[in-house]
Amino acid sequence: MTLVSSNGLYSMKLGPDFIGFYARFAGNSDPGLLYFQHNPMEAKARIMNGAGPIWVVLSPNGFLGMYQNGTAPVDVQPFSSFQQVGTGNRRVRLEPDGNLIGYYWARSSWLIDFKQVSDPCDLPSSCGPYGLCQRGKGCSCLDNRKSYTSGRCVTRETRISGDDLCRKKFNVLRRIGVELPNKEIMNYTIMNSFEKCENACHEKCTCWGAVYSNSSGFCYTIDYPIQTLVEVLDDTKMGYFKVLEGAGKDNTTTGLWVGLGLLCGLILLILGAGGWFCTRKKVEGLKGMWMKMG
């Protein structure tokens, strides 16, 4: 079976010899972008080619076991309550942030007992689109001019696909000291400069951005709307990102302009009502004078 998050963005599936976690951002094809992969430790048994599929079982003893043939697991991921007596029922769930969480029932509520991904910065979109995850510190925005106080860095939807980027107007955002959270399992091309990596993305209609490492020459192109990047203390790692015009407006600025618009509308309404009232009084006054003169 496949585990799917409640928002439909993330899924967990079994590969031939690993557990894979996939994200369905715009532009991804089935099964989606592989953002995390757990390979077995093979401490007690080994996975054999052609010996059948693997399966995963949630054990009552408090671990997630991976099996192929026989009773010995090829991998064991222990929970915090591993082999503790009386911990109650257990369950695992793929959460809306893409993390696999294990729980046990403690008489009145479900308590967290296991996290597949321990660091939120290793999740694909922990800080949202165009967010920047700072390990141990929290979230900010790729664009330093934007505030993360509203909980997000952009307000406009960016779920477009195909060659729409060739027909849309976009601005360019560059940032040093960033890398992808899943770079270990992403494909890359070796290039000898950041400019060449950037140009390769700039000329590609389906490319939303690129991340380049000057020390290794690895160029990672991003063929889906920009999600969360990870901050690193390394100026040789640089990023190039396309931002649709209007997508970078934060909620505070948008709310301010909306509020000013409503205020101006209210003032005009009051002035209009006052002018109508004064005009009516003037007309009534003239009518009264005419009647007296008549």
From TrEMBL:
The chain crosses the membrane at residues 256-279. It comes from the Eukaryota. One of its GO terms (biological process) is recognition of pollen. The keyword Methyltransferase does not apply. Keywords: Disulfide bond, Membrane, Signal, Transmembrane, Transmembrane helix. Residues 166-245 form the Apple domain. The keyword Disulfide bond applies. InterPro entries: Pan_app, S_locus_glycoprot_dom. Coiled coil: none annotated. This is Apple domain-containing protein. It comes from Mikania micrantha.
